[in-house]
Amino acid sequence: MSEIPKDLPIPLSNYVRLIMNRKSPYYDIIQFLLKDMEMHYETKGGSEVVYTINPRVLQEEIDKKIKNEKLTTVNICRTILALLYGSKLREEEDFYVTTTSGGRRNYHIKVNSRTLTSLSRFL
User: Percentages helix, strand, coil for the chain, rounded to the nearest 5?
Assistant: First the structure.
């Protein structure tokens, strides 16, 4: 298990702590994402693939499996950011964030063997 980066804002460091302590639904979200990323990576034959996360769609998918009142789009976004920064992925090199015209964010992760290892090591 890795340690919490010192330069993270307090809300994100709290989410990192929740994930590291395996608290539901935060840890469950991360497990779901990692399994899905690994599956996409393997179907591409081990070549780099950009994995896009739409928090609203993710919430709908996870809501079918996990019933929890803490499962909100905001919490999902913060959980994703905690994963990315907690696993020490580099913005623009390993992941990037786009914003729709309506203000919603999508997260794009460049999945390769190095990023998968960093993400898995975080847990």
Answer: 50, 15, 35
The pTM for the full model equals 0.91
Residue 3 has pLDDT above 80, yes or no: no
With the CA atoms of 44, 22, 17 and 71 taken in that order, what torsion angle do they form, in degrees rounded to the nearest 10? Answer: 80
Q: How is residue 52 annotated by DSSP? A: E
The mean pLDDT value of the chain amounts to 91
Distance in angstroms (rounded) separating the CA atoms of residues 96 and 94: 7
- Asked if pLDDT for residue 123 goes beyond 90, the answer is no
Q: Write out the E strands in 1-123.
A: 49-53, 95-99, 105-111
